[in-house]
């Protein structure tokens, strides 16, 4: 076990790791959604990144990305249906988080349709549906009730793992179980929650025979769960901790002990919300940041801390999947570009 997540770095690691050629296979793009041509600076920035590093955004259906990702302004409907192929032409966008799977499970055919739109080296970050990752559910208009299917192994397999494996295949990057905030009654019985998590993870088939780059990750929204006991559960299951950059969670530095406990291994990180804006949450952030075409609240401290973890993981040749929400700084594509620059200029 290594004491530090950040070992002594070679010159190549400081420079972003093994460089890759500035050539990017472009998927077929439907004529009514065209990608914005990447400028030379963005292409050069992408070429400096280690091949293990895949950066991307949370979903892609945002008209405000015209001039950043899209050649012109398209409707949300157009982008939702046809924008993924254009998104995947951007040299820095080599992954994307399928957040909509949290709200409704996708079929094998729907996953296969998405996989067909991206090049072979593109990888998806897929969120487990809420039916298995939410501890509480709405009780037909009568408030909230305990979800009896929470972390159910059969449902996790049937509604999430099996269709994703069959539809995405080798293009799976990370399969993420985001455990929504637990109520106080469950936080007082954390060992029981960890037992359920252990049983579910043990029932899942290995990803590597089908998705060699794939990793199972667990993200939490309760700081009380970030414990050595959770690290033990994840390590024993061959899973990892998803670094959740969210106002409900401590900053990166406070979550690093969990990553160190699981080191060496891959990095899965989801930068969801600006660290100072937890008081108003997603909807207010959406109102403040739309149309998501500029960095409204730059957060260089979080960006630089994330760059350190990315560089250390890639230097050890482990997969890196980092996705960023528009609500992190105001524009996810611009956050990705700034993060790539932070990786390039690291001392």
Total number of beta strands: 10
The figure for the number of domains is 1
Q: How do the strands line up in the largest sheet?
A: 1-2-3-6-7-8-9-10
Per CATH, which architecture?
Answer: Alpha-Beta Barrel
The average pLDDT score comes to 89
Largest sheet: 8 strands, parallel, barrel
Per CATH, the superfamily is: Protein of unknown function UPF0759
What is the general shape? Answer: globular
Distance between the termini: 26 Å
The CATH class, by name, is Alpha Beta
Structural class: alpha/beta
| Sequence of secondary-structure elements | HHEHEHEHEEHEHHEHEHEHHEHH
Strand content: 15-25%
Helix content: 25-40%
Question: How would you characterize the overall build of this protein?
Answer:
This protein is an alpha/beta fold and 347 residues long. The chain has a single domain (11-344), classed as TIM Barrel, CATH 3.20.20.410. Helices cover 38% and strands 15% of the residues. The chain is built from 14 helices and 10 strands. An 8-stranded parallel barrel has the order 1-2-3-6-7-8-9-10, surrounded by 5 helices. α2 (40-48) crosses α14 (332-344), α4 (108-115) runs parallel beside α6 (153-168) and α6 (153-168) crosses α8 (190-203).
């Amino acid at each position: 076990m290594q004491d530090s997540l950040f070992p002594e770095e070679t010159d190549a690691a400081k420079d972003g790791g093994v460089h890759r050629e500035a050539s990017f296979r472009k998927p077929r793009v439907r004529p009514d959604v065209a990608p914005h041509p990447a400028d030379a600076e963005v292409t050069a920035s992408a070429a400096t990144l280690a091949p293990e590093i895949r950066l991307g955004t949370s979903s892609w259906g945002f008209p405000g990305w015209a001039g950043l990702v899209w050649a012109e302004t398209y409707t949300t409907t157009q982008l939702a249906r046809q924008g993924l192929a254009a998104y995947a032409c951007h040299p820095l966008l080599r992954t994307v988080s399928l957040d909509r799977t949290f709200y409704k499970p996708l079929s094998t055919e729907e996953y296969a349709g998405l996989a067909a739109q991206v090049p072979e080296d593109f990888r998806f970050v897929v969120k487990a549906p809420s039916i298995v990752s939410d501890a509480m559910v709405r009780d037909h208009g009568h408030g909230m009730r305990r979800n009896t299917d929470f972390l159910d192994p059969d449902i996790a397999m049937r509604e999430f793992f099996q269709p994703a494996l069959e539809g995405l295949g080798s293009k799976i990057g990370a399969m993420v179980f985001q455990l929504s905030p637990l109520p106080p009654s469950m936080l007082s019985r954390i060992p029981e929650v960890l037992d359920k998590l252990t049983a579910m993870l043990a029932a899942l088939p290995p990803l590597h025979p089908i998705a060699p780059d794939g990793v199972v990750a667990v993200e939490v929204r309760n700081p009380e769960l970030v414990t050595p006991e959770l690290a033990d559960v994840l390590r024993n299951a061959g899973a990892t901790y998803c670094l959740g950059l969210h106002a409900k969670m401590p900053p990166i530095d406070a979550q690093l002990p969990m990553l160190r406990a699981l080191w060496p291994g891959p990095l899965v990180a989801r930068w969801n919300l600006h660290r100072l804006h937890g008081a108003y949450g997603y909807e207010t952030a959406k109102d403040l940041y739309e149309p998501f075409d500029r960095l409204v609240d730059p957060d260089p401290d979080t960006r630089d801390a994330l760059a350190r973890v990315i560089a250390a993981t890639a230097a050890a040749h482990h997969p890196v999947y980092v996705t960023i929400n528009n609500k992190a700084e105001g524009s996810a594509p611009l956050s990705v570009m700034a993060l790539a620059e932070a990786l390039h200029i690291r001392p």
